[in-house]
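Q: Make up one entry.
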Amino acid sequence: MSLRASLRELNATQRHVVLASFLGWTLDAFDFFLLVFVLGDIARDFDVRKTAVTFVAGAGGARDRLRQGALLST
């Protein structure tokens, strides 16, 4: 079954939910790529190397993932 056929089976409210979730997923990925594009500028502003900035950005993401995992396991 094609995607278009699957979407036609949904009512208007369900199609809106699919569209909203797709847009949310797309914008969630966009902020990551935006950060990648400005890493050099951030490093220059704080007078540190890019590796330091990427480490901090990665550590923040890892901390959040660990926190979410801890919350999900309780």
